[in-house]
Structures are given as structure tokens and as C-alpha cells.
Amino acid sequence: MTPPPGLPLSLPPLPPLGTAGDALRAARTCGCPPASGPVTPHHLAAVLGHACGPGPFEARPGTSPGLAHAHVPRPLLAAGDDAPVPRGRYAYDPVAHALVPGAGALPESGAGLVLHLPGDDTGERAARAALVAAACGLCTRQSGAGPGTLLLHGGPAAPPPAAAGAGLDAVLADLPTGPPAHLRTGAAVTREKLVRVLAAAGVRAPYRVTVRDVAGLEAGLYGPVTDGPEPVRPGDTASLAYVLTRSGPAAVAALADAPVTVHLLGELPLRAAEALRLRVAAHETGLTAWCDDRPTPAAAALLRVEPGEGAVACHVTLGHAAPEPRLRVPVLVPGALS
């Protein structure tokens, strides 16, 4: 895969992804040391294309279709000596599905691959890339260069990208980007479902859970929900919503009406992967999940966060909401039909 000097390097066609469940399991259990296995051009194409590239065209009612996140700066890639592409710096062109040589402002990668996602202050884009990489059979670890920088590497024997499944890209596209209007339905959120979602996402302590309407749990504020959760503060939690978020009235309403909200503690870039996995795991169980990443400074005191546990990173609501109609038109990547 050596292009003429200065010309874009075309990547292999996008493979289909594995299921969301496969990706969640892989992301929870990845413990590979860095550079423990090779990364192939097909792996690289899968991660860049599905996590940072075309995906589906999307439109909500009253808007025009367009590439998701088209306004976000292009991903950058630094390739070392053992990378599947020639050593150097590249920018990923999502429309051409190609690497453009000569990208600057990215440190050398040594022997492997460094993926940098500019403008990823919250860590959401890096979390998406890490989840997609897990579905493709790769491992990632955070680089010290910033929250949007990942080292890509294979497992001991990284398999080729998954050949079939439910389509993680479609699951990611279905996650609500704005606060949902939570509904009271016959399909109640149960204590067992909450524990199952938290386990599937691999959410680690410390965190808090506010419960408004969960079968098997009294309303109140809880610490980590295990086999025997003990309330931190019993009672109605809806009134907390008005001083938990800085995101405006719609977010306040979502926090107040959600049957359950998980509050992750610490720094957001460090908890972003768990927040994304939590949303995907909730989606897989038929729940609507939305992440509010603008907590107020007062949130820690309201949620009875102990000294040393850190601030509140974000709030993730779980519940039921009316489906949001969207239009999807698949994108044909150049070469995909050849």
C-alpha cells in the first residue's frame, strides 16, 4: 500500500461490523499490551471508516441529509515502522476513504499507529473509535498526548474485522443526540435490567445512580448498584435535576423525568468510553439512553460524592422514549462494489 509521493493512499473497502454485544464484550475485556499484534490495512479501514468516516447519511425531519459530524476536523494518523501503511503522518479523508499524506501537528508514533481526533475535548469521538476498534478485533489505549489520541494495536492474534452482525454503526447512529422526552410505559425499567446494563457496559466505581421509577428499587440516590444496593439518600430525585446540569431546560426535563440516571464520577475524557458503552448497552436492551456532559459544580455535593472520588463527569439517563424518525441513505465508498 505505497502510493506515489504526495498522492492519497486508498484504503480497502469497509467491512461490516460485528454486533454491539460483541463490541461491548471486547471493549470490557481488552487487556493486551501495546503493539502485541499486527494491524492490517483492513483493520485500519474498518476503524477509520466506521468510527470517523461515512457511516450512514442521516437526517431528522426538517433537515437536509449530510455526513454525520461533517464539521469536525479530519482525523490524523501517525504511522511508524511496523504500521500497515508507509511511515509518516496522514489525514483521513472520509469521503474518498483514503489517507492524505503530509498531515502535521502530530507526534511520531515510533513503531505503531497513533490516531488523533482533533476537537475531541470530551473524549466522545475517541470512545466511539475504541468501541468500533473492539468490534473489528483491535485494541486501543489512551495516549498521553490528549483525550482524543489513541494508540491502535492488535491482540495476540488479531482476527480480521467481523464479517457479519447487527451493525454497530447503525446502533451508534440511533443513540439520541439531544435530551429525550422519557415516557411511562408498560415495559418498566427493572432493578435486574439496570444491573445487567451496568455490567454489559463495564461501568466501574465510583458512580452514583438516581432512581425515580425502577421496579425493585425505592426512589432515591444510590451508590454502585450491585446485588444489594443501599440507598445513599432515599426519596424523590426529580428536584435534583434543576441543579445538576448546565445544558438548559430540555436537559433538566430529561434528568427529572428519566426512570434512572447514572452519574459517572471523575474526569470526562477518562469516563467517556464507559458513558458510550452504557448508552449502547441500554440501546441493546430496548432503553433510550442520553448523555449530558455539562454537570454543574454543585452536582458532587448533591449526589453525596465523598472527598477523593472526584467531580461528576457526566449524567447518563436510561428510560423509554418515543422513536425518533430518521432517513438513512447508505454511502457507497469508492471501490466498495469492485
| Helix content range | 10-25%
* Widest beta sheet: strand line-up: 1-5-4-3-6-8-7
- Average residue pLDDT: 80
Overall 3D geometry? elongated
Q: What's the N-to-C terminus distance?
A: 17 Å
Please report the number of helical segments.
8
Strand composition percent = 15-25%
> Rg to the nearest angstrom?
21 Å
Low-confidence stretches: 331-338
The ordered H/E elements are EHHEEEEEHEEHEHEEEHEHEHEE
Structural class based on helices, strands and sheet pairing: alpha+beta
Task: Note down, in words, how this protein is organized.
This protein has 338 residues and is α+β, with helices and mostly antiparallel strands. 24% of the residues lie in helices and 22% in strands. It has helices at residues 20-29, 41-52, 124-135, 168-174, 191-201, 249-257, 268-284, 299-302; strands spanning 9-10, 56-59, 76-79, 88-93, 98-101, 113-116, 138-142, 149-154, 182-183, 207-211, 220-222, 231-234, 260-265, 288-292, 312-321, 327-330. The longest helix has 17 residues, at 268-284. The chain is elongated and about 65 Å long. It starts with 8 loop residues before the first strand and ends in an 8-residue tail after the last strand.
